[in-house]
User: What shape does this take?
Amino acid sequence: MKRSKPIDLLKTSKPKPLRPKRQTAQEFLELQRLMAGAVMRPLARDGGMQGRWDDGRPMPQVAGSFIKPNDRLTSFERLEIYNRQYWLRIKDCFYDDYPGVRAVLGDGAFERLASAYLKEHPSHSFTLRNLGRSLVAFLEKEPRLIPPPRELAIDMARLEWAHIEAFDNEAKAPLEMDSLLGADPAEIHLQLQPHLTLLRFGYAVDEFLIQVKQGERLRSEASNAMDQHQSRRRARLKRTLKPETVFLAVHRHHDTVFYKRLNSAQFRLLSAFRANASLEQACLDLGDAGAGDVQSWFQGWAALGWFCQLQ
Amino acid sequence: MPANAFNGFTDYGIGIGLRVPHYDHILTEKPAVDWFEIISENFMVDGGRPLKVLDQILEQYRVVQHGVSTYFGSAEPLNREHLKKLKRLVKRTNTPWVSDHLCWGSVDGRYTHDLLPMPYTFAAAKVTARKIRETRDFLEVPIAVENVSSYAEFHVSEMTEWEFLGEVVEQADCGILLDVNNIYVSSRNHSFDPRDYLDNIPAHRVAQFHIAGHSKFEKYILDTHDHPVIDPVWKLYQHVLRRAGRTATLLEWDAHIPSFDEVHREALKANRFIENFEAKTVAA
Assistant: This one.
C-alpha cells in the first residue's frame, strides 16, 4: 500500500515571507502629482515651506508620508529644499524677463504680482521662455494687483512680451518687392514677419524700458551699493512718464531687437496687413492719411525685411 | 571605452558647456576646444541670435546636445512638440548623441523646470525606459541618461539609485552620462559610499562624463555648478576611469561663471587623470 507522505503541519502553516508590495504605475503617477503639488506650492511668509497641506494636515505629516528623513534633515526639510528651489528658479526667470514691469510697480508690488501670477499660471511649456505668456491677460483680469496708473504696467508687460517674441521668433525669407509688380492690389495680402509685433500704448514705455535696461547694465557692472540708487532712479523715471499715445513696432533686425516708432497711419496700415486685409483694402481704409508717403514707408519696411511672403 | 554605440562611436576629449558670457570670446578668439555641450532647450527656438551663434559655433566646433526637460521619468507621455523641436535641432547640430536626465519634472502638463528625483521602483523604471526608447526611435540618435544629484529619497523605493540606473539603461538599451559630481553630492546627502555606485553600474554603457563643482551647506550639499571641481570628485573620476576607460568628459559651470580660460583650464585638469590611467594601463 502506498503511503502518503506525512504532512508537516508546522511547515505548511508557516506563512510565506511576504514580497514587499511593489509600486504600481498609477501609484507612480500619484506620487509625482503629490510631490509636484508640494514643490509648486507657494512659500510661507518666512520663505520656507507652508506648515499645512491643502486639506489642513500638518505638512511634516504629509512630507513624512512619502519622503524619508535622514540623520540631518526631516522629511519636511528635504522636501522644502525643492519647494524653495522651484520658487527661486521661476521668480529669477520672471524678474529677468520683466525688469520694466518691476520698475513701474516697484519691488514690493512686483513681488506680490510675481507670486500671484506664477501661482495661477505655472509653466506649461518645456521652456521658461514662455513663462510670461499669460501676464498681460492676468493683469487685465486682476487690476487690484497693480497700483494706478494700471495701463502703464499693462503697456509695459505687452512691450516686454513683444520683446521676448522679437528675440527668437521665426524670421521668414523676406519678400522681394519686385515680385509684386503687375499684381492686382486687391489680390495682394502681405504677411508680416512672425517676430514683428505692433503695439499701441498710452505711455512712452519704450523709452522708459530702454532707460531701465541701461540702468540694469550699469548696476551689473558696478557694486550692489548701486541698488538703492537704482530704485530711486526708477521712481524718478516713472514720475516723468505722462500719458501719451505711442505706436510701436517691436521687431528684430540683424539679430538685434528694436523698437521703431510709427505714426498713426503707419500703424493702421500695418495692422490691416496683420489682419490679412488686401493691399488695396488697407490703402483704401487709410483714406488721405499718409498720402504721398506710403511708397517710402513700404521701401523702409521692405528694407527691414518686415514683409515675408504672399499668402 | 572612448567610442561605443552610446556615444555614436565617437572619441571626443574634454569639452565645456557653451555659455552666453563666453560667446564673444569663442567667436573672436576661436580657442582650441575639443567640443562644446549645449543645453538643447536654449536653442529650440525658431530664430534669432541663439541660432545664429550656434551656427557660427558649428562652423568651428563639435557640439553635443544636453537636454534638461525631456523628463524621461515623468509618468505622463512625452511632449510631442518638444520632441519635434529637439529633432530639428539634432539635424542642425549633427550631435552624435543626445543626453538628458534620469529624472522627472512635469506632471499633468505643468512643468517644475527642476530635475526631481525618481522613486527607485520597477514601475518607474519601466515607464522611464519606454520613454527613452521612444525618444531614441524618434530622434534617431543614441541617448544617454544622466544621474541627477538629489536631496530627498522616497519610502517607496525598491532598490538603490545605481540599481535603478542599471535597470533603466538595460531596459532601454541606452547609454549613461555619468555625472561624477552628482554621485558625490547624492552620496553625501544620502550617506552612501560613492564607490559602491561607481562599481555597480554597467560601465560599458558610459557614453560621457560630467564633472562640476557644488556648494556645501550645513546639512546638505547643493549641486550649484558654481565652483571648481573638488579633489574628492576628481578621485571618483579617477576611480571610474578604471572601469569605463577614457570617455568624453565635460565640465559644467553654470553660475558665477568665470572667464573662458579659467573654465577651460579647470576642465583640462581631467587630462591628468586620463593620462595617469592610460600610463597605468600600458604598464599593466
Summary: Residues 5-283 of chain B form a domain with the TIM Barrel fold (CATH 3.20.20.150). Chain B has one domain: 5-283.
